[in-house]
Design a protein that fits this description.
This protein has 468 residues and is an alpha+beta fold. 36% of the residues lie in helices and 22% in strands. Helix 2 crosses helix 18 and helix 12 (284-290) packs antiparallel against helix 17 (409-423). Belongs to the protoporphyrinogen/coproporphyrinogen oxidase family. Coproporphyrinogen III oxidase subfamily.
Length: 468
């Protein structure tokens, strides 16, 4: 009897992870990716002769999924923590250290908050006089919850820039339950928020580095996963957009590039709009829910400078910018400082990058590359006194790159999964469901693989099949 054939639609990190889990078991695996490369928002490139990440640049190390996948595909020796994690917030016309003892900008150490100078005296006084409130018995926005307890300035100058760096969204719309679930028990209990965060951060301090990188960039991960899949005998096809997905009596008919494939099961690892289009015929309720998912776009401007032109390079790992301060950029990363491998690979260059754009403020993405570079340089001049000109630049636009998690998002995801499960031999995964971070996407891929494998498609894998 032939091994069950599972088709994975989408070659981003979620689709690649699902394929790795499947290929390690008794399955024939085909990955169909619409674009000319795999990796999605994980993309390595070159700027001025220096290899850099043009998309995601690190993974959360306090979740195991991404680190385990990197090890499974041969990158165990390439994992590397940041050389420095000393980041700042550019607010009130100065770079101010991000205070320690916080969770997504919510403070647990008011002395550290005061020492940072991020808040005005009035904002700090409001945070020190935390207002009690009833327990949260339903989902609410992060901005509403934190603002009611600690004041709007904590939201504007701390939570907004940190959360914006993850979701490119707005605290007035993003779900507490979906985006910062570690705060949910505190909200449900109704106890003091600052005390609850202090307990959380105290436990986290012994957990090691918050983030991990990979020598050569996080874009190395999808490249290694693709090589692993090819060695395992998987069929990995780029430039293969799926035009049709239909349930049949014995599995699925998948049409890509005008060619029809038979699949015993399908893992759908594409953004919500594409998933909605493919599911319209066989899972119309899921398609309708997926069509409501909104996305934010952003642009990354990567610049390479000659170190000799800089004099004294900027210090630390970079800075975040609260939208309330009215700047063009929302963050800057000093990549050559942050990643030791990058500084070693290009000792005469200094690479940094900025990001622009967030949910409902994507008009900036339509500006010419030269204007995005000029706006970035102007803000860098004001923030760190940078006056040198880069010898090379690259602008990467991630249009519709980050799904938004509004109030009710997790309930919507549950409805989508129920609708999909009712069809059989089908599962969904990706950034639109359980978190936009790389570990969350990989965990969603594991879940999808376990859900999709029915008796017709073979036994579900165990947690050990990744070989980590």
């Amino acid at each position: 009897m032939a091994d069950p054939h599972v088709v994975v639609v989408g070659g981003g990190i979620a689709g690649l992870a699902a394929a790795v889990f499947l290929a390690d078991g008794p399955h024939r695996v085909t990955v169909l990716e619409a674009s000319g490369r795999v990796g999605g928002k994980l993309m390595a490139g070159e700027v001025g002769g220096v290899r850099v990440d043009l998309g995601a640049e690190s993974v959360l190390a306090r979740r195991p999924e991404a680190v385990d996948l990197a090890r499974a595909v041969g990158l165990a020796d390439a994992l590397e923590p940041p050389s420095t994690a000393k980041a700042a917030i550019w607010t009130r016309d100065a770079l101010r250290p991000i205070p320690g003892g916080q969770v997504m900008g919510v403070p647990g150490d008011l002395d550290a908050l005061a020492a940072s100078g991020v808040l005005t005296p009035e904002g700090l006084d409001r945070a020190r006089h935390e207002r009690s409130g009833p327990p949260v018995d339903a989902d609410t926005t992060i901005g509403a919850y934190v603002g009611s307890r600690l004041g709007q300035e904590v939201v504007d100058r701390l939570v907004e820039p940190l959360l914006g760096g993850v979701y490119a969204g707005q605290t007035s719309e993003i779900s507490l339950r979906a985006a910062v679930p570690q705060l949910l028990p505190i909200a449900l209990d109704g106890g003091p928020l600052v005390d609850g965060v202090r307990r959380l951060t105290g436990r986290a301090q012994a957990a090691g580095p918050v983030f991990q990188g990979i020598r050569g960039g996080i874009g190395t991960l999808p490249e290694a996963a693709a090589a692993h899949l090819r060695r395992a005998g998987a069929d990995l096809r780029t430039d293969s957009p799926v035009e049709e997905l239909r349930r049949t009596p014995d599995g699925w008919r998948v049409v890509a590039g005008g060619r029809a494939l038979h699949a015993d099961a399908v893992v759908l690892a594409v953004p919500a709009p594409q998933a909605a289009a493919l599911l319209r015929a066989d899972a119309p309720a899921a398609a309708a829910e997926l069509a409501t998912v909104e996305y934010a776009g952003m642009a990354l401007v990567t610049m390479a400078f000659h170190r000799a032109d800089l004099g004294e390079p900027p210090q630390g790992s970079g800075f975040l910018v609260p939208p309330v301060d009215g700047r063009s950029i929302k963050a800057s990363t000093f990549s050559s400082n942050k990643w030791g491998w990058l500084g070693a690979a290009a000792p005469d260059a200094f690479v940094l990058r900025t990001s622009l754009g967030r949910h409902r403020e994507e008009a900036v993405l339509g500006l010419p590359d030269e204007e995005l570079v000029a706006r970035s340089l102007a803000d860098l001049g004001r923030a760190v006194g940078l006056s040198a000109r880069p010898y090379a630049t690259a602008v990467t636009r991630w249009t519709g790159g980050l799904p938004q998690y509004p109030v009710g998002h997790l309930d919507r995801v549950a409805r989508i999964r129920r609708s999909v499960a009712a069809v059989g031999a089908l599962a969904v995964c990706g950034a639109a469901y359980d978190g936009v971070g790389i570990p969350a996407c990989i965990a969603g891929a594991r879940r999808a693989v376990n859900e999709v494998l029915t008796p017709a498609a073979g036994a579900a894998p165990t947690e050990g099949t990744m070989g980590a």
